[in-house]
Amino acid sequence: MPEAPRVGELAPELRLPDLQGRASSIRDLRGRPVLVTFLRHAG
Amino acid sequence: MKVRDRWHRWEAIGAAAVFVVFDDPDLIRRTMLADLDVEALPFDVLVDRSRETYARWGLTRARWSTIWLDPNVYRTYARLLRSGVPLRSGGTDVLQLGGDFVLGPDGRVVCSRPQRRDDRPPVGELLRAARGSVEGSG
Fold it and tell me: What is the ipTM of this complex?
């Protein structure tokens, strides 16, 4: 199991479909700060 | 989503936000995003049904006792009930942990807060990290 990325490291790639099924990648957001939040559940 | 309520502060520093979920998109639309126009959200909501990306970012499942013996969970429920927020289904796996990460403009991590139990960092801490990454890159 990989460890969570640490401060100073390059973030792992994150490429996933959105709610409409369109592929999206955090690489497309380079050049600005990005908050990446993994949610626990839909509740 | 507290971030949603303070979105103008993220916009002010030019930040983007990505929320990753693992539950079925239809459930997400009916619960978390029930009162929102999904097509007009100012942030991305991405779906990781297999949870492979959760695992790649080091986000594991908690033990049953870690969640259900944590008094913070019950304080959160009590606060939601007092504020009139209806409790909803917990989705398909209440033991899956999440996490908050802030990336600087160069893609490096400037704040890393994987959950170890049902804990989340204050939004202000995340905002400060994002703001610092902009000031540091200028």
Answer: 0.94
Secondary structure (H, E, C), chain B:
CHHHHCHHHHHHCCCEEEEEECCCHHHHHHCCCCCCCHHHCCCEEEECCCCHHHHHCCCCECCHHHHHCCHHHHHHHHHHHHCCCCCCCCCCCCCECCEEEEECCCCEEEEEEECCCCCCCCHHHHHHHHHHHHHHHC
A35: distance to nearest CA of chain B, Å? 5
pTM: 0.84
Cβ within 8 Å, pair B17-A32: no
Chain B residues with CB under 8 Å of A16 CB are 20, 46-48, 53
Average pLDDT over residues B76-95: 70
Q: A34 vs B93: CB contact, 8 Å cut-off?
A: no
